Amino acid sequence: MQDTSWVADRRTDVGGPPGDVIDLLDWKRRVFELYRQIRVAPKPAEAWEAWRRARDHLFATHPQSPVPKGKRQSFTGLPYFDYDPAARVLAAVREAAPETYDIATSGEAGGSYRFSRFALASFDLDGRPLELELYWLEGYGGGLFVPFRDATSGRETYGAGRYLLDTVKGADLGMEDERLVLDFNFAYNPSCAYDPAWVCPLAPPPNRLGVPIRAGERYGADLRR
């Protein structure tokens, strides 16, 4: 099946006409360009505002939008926490013993994606030392994937967690001072948060944080089919 989401998720019913694939290509080009602009922007807060506007436009108008077609006309924008400068951190990356995961997905009984943990990212957030595993997609070309859950999941944010980085789809915040940029203001929901026709890798146990991260996209259940 084609992978046709914002990031690592995909539709369960893909296989349409060639025009659908061209639409997907256009979506991916737009996302890659958007994140390129974010990486070079001198002011992260302004980049975040531009990111929000671009996502709202894509979700409202693009044929590959994960918002169900019946709800796009009334779509007025995705909900977010207020921008928090403290939610942008630089993580020290250290190698970890390789470990392969078949990360479970939503929307498919027994479905999974294969990723390999290759490193750990350590950082402080609100004075707390935290750590996330970094995963490499075991597929053509590969790519860095960083999903996570936190104490807001299932209440203020999507219960299955959010995504922070997925470089195979363009979601890449770059490096700074030889450390990995983790800006939780750019955390976003997987496409299955809006429509169960999408299949999304879920955050594995090591990336389930016990603290609340009130930054990034919130959960608007009214958008779901």
**What is the number of strand segments?**
9
Give the total of domains. 1
Distance between the termini: 22 Å
Computed over alpha carbons, the radius of gyration is 17 Å
Describe this structure in words.
- The protein is an alpha+beta fold and about 220 residues long.
- It has one domain.
- About 20% of the residues lie in helices and about 30% in strands.
- It is built from three helices and nine strands.
- The strands form two sheets. The protein has a seven-stranded antiparallel sheet, with no helix packed on it. A two-stranded antiparallel ribbon has the order 1-9.
- A hairpin with a 6-residue loop joins strand 4 and strand 5.
- The longest helix is centred in the first third of the chain and has 23 residues.
- It is globular.
- It starts with 9 loop residues before the first strand and ends in a 26-residue tail after the last strand.
In brief:
The protein has 225 residues and is of the alpha+beta class.
Tell me the layout of helices and strands:
Blueprint: E1 10-11, H1 18-40, H2 44-61, H3 69-72, E2 88-104, E3 112-125, E4 128-137, E5 144-148, E6 162-166, E7 175-176, E8 179-183, E9 198-199
Antiparallel strand pairs: 1-9, 2-3, 2-8, 3-4, 4-5, 5-6, 7-8
Helix pairs in contact: 1-2
List keywords for this structure.
9 strands; 28% strand; disordered N terminus; 225 residues; 7-stranded antiparallel sheet; alpha+beta; 3 helices
